[in-house]
Amino acid sequence: MEDFDYEHQGLPYEMFMRQAKETPDRIAVVSPGENRQLTYKELDDVTDVLATNMRINGVEEDCIVGIYMEKCLNYTISYIATLKAGATLVIVPDTVIYDPFLLCQFLKEHRISRMMFTPSLLEAVLDADRIDFRRAFHFMRVVLFCGEVLTTRLLERCLKALPSVQFFNMYGTSEANCVAIADLSEWYRQQKGEICGKKFCPVGKLLPGVKIVILNDEMQAQPVGVAGEIYIGGPKLALGYLKQPELTRARFIKKPDGVSDLIPSRLHRSGDWGYLLSDGTLEVCGRCDSKVKIRGYSIEIQAVEAALLSLPVVNACVVLVEGEEGQDKNLIAYVVPENQENMTIKRGEIRASLKKRLPFYMIPSYFVFLESLPLHAKSGKVDKKALPLIDKYEWIDMKSMSCPSTPTENSLVPFWADILSLKSVDIYESFFNLGGIESLGKTESKPFQLLAQLLDEMVNVQVSFRPM
């Protein structure tokens, strides 16, 4: 490499184009962390598709495109496609991207006109105090959402805060890159105020050459409007996962029998749950692996989160499962209230509203109120591992509780708290919502002894319990 004459090889973009023509079958880029690799021809093809789409959506020579993401194949694909489209590329430093104040300053100083955001990251910027968004986003023309499901509630907030910006929603996977894109600003105008009836924003029409089929658990193709797992085909699929043949066979499959001849023979199993509309628009509802089973009931975590987000008092939320397989499990909802000044929202109020939208077994047992959701330092997505842990036998939020107000309630609360091994209980909470099933499932007889004592002292009734 010492004899390599860099000065006469031209710009990096020119070097890439020349190498792609001379050695199309050589490996161009390897991402060990993702176990993926692309040849020069594959990288050339996939960046051509993305560059064409960027030009269709208005990227020109005077555009300055900001890119932030961890070092991965999509990082390489994005900056080569941006250069192919003729725009100027600016890499946003890691030290800037997660500080709302520094990020807004960076956008203004570098006159960034187009940028990709995860919904969580842009929401964090909008939540920041003492920032003039319109001034910081003065040069911004287009924002592309990617990486997470985008709620209609957040879109409306973005449109009101940044009316001069055009918003797009882009869907893709690491294994298939960009799959579909939607012009959300135009979609919002077409909805004419009916957006509140929808929970999630569409991801739009498929990009040229990309094919989608929706399959159920029996690998049968689903009709228009019926949800299932999204399978992707087309020229942009990766070869597989580097040195992981079993995972490659599991995620890259042969087209099942009975699927249309228009669908390619090789498909990538995305793990995403969604459906196609009659006009070819794709809607993504969440992850297939967000399904859990609690006390015999199959629960879709995304449906619980969607119900929470539909409540006027909820700005953002994440729902997790507490408990190991084979043990009693519960849902924990981490909620960011819409009004940050009112952090005393009652858990009972939220639970009562959810009961009108969800069956009883999908109501979270615990609610944790936060000022904001933690984000991953690299991807900008919600960092679920950073959410605060709770000890359900120690944790209690007195501010959000409905406390006893009558002599009878004051007498009953200590008994039920002792039975449930809690410091206190909300007078409107259900015995089972507070972990009653676990208490009844214990081998010792303490819960039953305390209940018998309660009945004896309160209503002078003697009872005995025996196992069934």
Automatic annotation (TrEMBL):
Listed SUPFAM superfamilies: Acetyl-CoA synthetase-like
Domain AMP-binding enzyme C-terminal: 304-380
UniProt key word Phosphoprotein: yes
Keywords on record: Phosphopantetheine, Phosphoprotein
Signal found in the keyword field: no
Residue span, AMP-dependent synthetase/ligase domain: 81-242
Domain of life: Eukaryota
Stored InterPro entries: AMP-bd_C, AMP-bd_C_sf, AMP-dep_synth/lig_dom, ANL_N_sf
Name recorded for this polypeptide: AMP-dependent synthetase/ligase domain-containing protein
Lineage of the organism: Eukaryota, Metazoa, Spiralia, Lophotrochozoa, Annelida
